[in-house]
């Protein structure tokens, strides 16, 4: 009515032609990959602020506040040490407590990233439906938050390692690239589960099982040599390339003098670690980007 | 009362028509169908969930709702358009489709720039202070840190949450619903949007804030934006919009000057 009442130079055009004439674009269209990446870079401050805010918020109701960032890994380590170090004593591993904590903290980094990642979209629908930003910011922010948590854990870990009598060596420096590779891997994986969790509400229920199975397959709680002794050869080869096991072994090699390892060849270990980071980092990003339009649907 | 509306319309109606009318939103026979989870009754256990994932069946209780059925219209730069209709007539769904958040199943929605949807439920982080929420919200809208720093005091000032003491430093969960809505509106209104979609946000807040927000909407329109307003309060539609679209059961029932459409809608609503 209001449209037709006026003499209009655009009269006679169909809606689509009108849109094309004035350069309008389809609402919510997915930007091309390069443009998307550029936008994501533009939003890096948002990722940092959001990650920081989440970290603060997660402790805001606790009386001890941010102290929990260190207390949580400590308590965890104490409980597992009680069970696996004292009750089910493991004699085969020298310095078991340090061995256990290294595995536990490194595994926990990926585990919590994945757990929170499944809710990255579904838990932030309010934000997603109100504001436009590249959605990849959310899983990335989760990875950054967990990375900050990991730094807290690493402080505890270094203390434990030193107290249990390990010497400080140059090999410790290797921990830095190892953790960075794992962070890239986690970012990719978090983006994958974020997209899957946005569509499959049931994923949240299944995740604890998958993660527990993954933990047992990563030799966190017991000696990794058990895999070689009890599994057929092909299964051992499979466990050897398990990404978390690889990252844990790198950390153990860096921090501990004589921890048992499954991958005896160090160059191969690094190759697998870097390979996983590249494949998962790029693959996860591409997979997440392809779903960009649908995240508001919930 | 009626006289009052007449005069307020007399002020807003003869807005100088821009010579060339530039369309900002073109909606072409849009159909939106979305799926609703009714809440699973058949097996929420992990095993049942796993079985569903493996067999690739969807949860048993999903129903499709055809909320918008073939709506066509064009919105121009500088217009404020009211969207009215009974509850469940598809108004909010249409806004989401324009914002690009719900993909259309048939037809198309074309927009200028990136429309921004401002709803009452657009929650930020409730555990964080109001001030931090402002910073996050601004960054999420794509502002640079320098801009954010400059704008934050203005936004808090505009929202008026500090009128009863220093609320900006308290977590947002301690806010009343009106205060939270005011802060959210203030954040979203801090940026210039090509197209701003407002879902009932102006209804919240006290009289003073309503005045300020209506003023802000007017400014946004003057800076060549287009504003859509969904509201059940016909008075706020009358005050801010000169054009109104009436949706009923997902179908565009009427599109024209606010006066005519609102009158027809009122007759319809009273006659029901």
Automatic annotation (TrEMBL), chain A:
Subcellular location: Cell inner membrane; Cell membrane
Membrane topology note: Multi-pass membrane protein
One term under GO cellular component: plasma membrane
Keyword Membrane among UniProt keywords: yes
Biological process (GO), any one: lipopolysaccharide transport
GO MF annotation list: ABC-type transporter activity
Domain ABC transmembrane type-2, first and last residues per copy: 64-291
Primary residence: membrane
Protein keywords: Cell inner membrane, Cell membrane, Membrane, Transmembrane, Transmembrane helix, Transport
Transmembrane parts of this sequence: 67-87, 93-110, 137-164, 170-194, 269-289
Pfam families: ABC2_membrane
Top-rank lineage group of the source organism: Bacteria
Family annotation (PANTHER family): INNER MEMBRANE TRANSPORT PERMEASE, TRANSPORT PERMEASE PROTEIN
Family: Belongs to the ABC-2 integral membrane protein family.
Protein name according to UniProt: Transport permease protein
